[in-house]
Amino acid sequence: MRPVAILGIGQTKIDEHWKRSLRDLAGEAIQAALRDAGRDSAEALFVSNMMSGIVNDQNNLGALIADWSGLHGVEAVKIEAACGSGGAAFRAGLMGVASGEMESALVVGVEKMTDRSPHEVTAALAMAADADYEAEAGVSFVGLNALIMRRYMHEHGWKHADFAPFSINAHTNAMHNPYARLHQKITVEDFEKSHMVATPINLLDASPIGDGAAAALLVPAGTLSQCACIVISGSASATDTLAVHSRPEALFLTAAYKSARAAYKMAGVMPEDIEVFELHDAFSIMSALSLEACGFAERGQGPRLGLDNKISPKGRVPICTRGGLKARGHPVGATGVYQIVEVVQQLRGECGETQVDGARTGMAQNIGGSGATIITHILKRE
Hints:
CATH architecture of the largest domain: 3-Layer(aba) Sandwich
Shape: globular
Order of helices and strands: EHEHHEHEHHHHEEEEHEHHHHEE
Largest sheet: 9 strands, mixed
Radius of gyration: 19 Å
Number of helices: 13
CATH superfamily of the largest domain: Thiolase/Chalcone synthase
Mean pLDDT: 96
Helix content: 25-40%
CATH class of the largest domain: Alpha Beta
Structural class: alpha/beta
């Protein structure tokens, strides 16, 4: 398998794009990535999306977006892995180029979520859970995460306020990201007084949905000059049971542990070598669990990194440096590609006030469901 690099990136602002279609958002991100790469096309297109069929009444997105974007006749397909769709599509594009099957691949993640009622979107999100044993019992996606968080707090003795640094860090960083949805700083008091959604998860524990698209162009690394080459040095995917109650350890992200460990081995790095980590903070509890599973914190001690101010861009483990899902926003099928774009920005030194000094190695981890599908990518600046 040959080395693969990311030549171009593009993204749209995450927002409520009432006057724009799903194909329009995807097309904007694709064209931005092509301009960034200095190319006008690619051999294949991988589209990540979770809910276009139920929310947008549209499937067959590969052909739709290829045609709209001027990529006439190219191989194109939609890939779905719930909220992990972006990471899954990126891995598919990586394997296509690494294998030699194609010389270039565009990956675009897109989701248009705000055209339907909150009830309809909540029902669509619940499809990431087990339909027979979780959704059938009336447990929403946020409800599942609330059960996990409640048990975690009980087992390890944390208070709800101990999770505030995760959200505060995300909102602080999003202030400097023009593509982020939320540009409001928050305090511990704001966090504690926020409207309750599903105890103990309140509004400021949870990421907002939105409309948006992000894209990346992949090419063989050997065709590029080494001076500005962002290489994909590690890539792995793993799964756990879909239903949380079927797991031997409900408070440990086994799929994150497995995919991170495999990606570390492939990249020849250890957790201490990761200089920026775009984790999947759909809920604050997932930040803690991800940090623990990936080797940055002892089990049960994830919140300590936030409380000790070690997760900021100047900290030991910088996370969510562009706002994360919590403040950048979470257009679910596109999120994994946004994470890749943001790591590339860090390794290029393009993040301004939230730039991690001298960052050369970064990691993105995308989660589908409540930890059922987890894809980890490690990028290096050559």
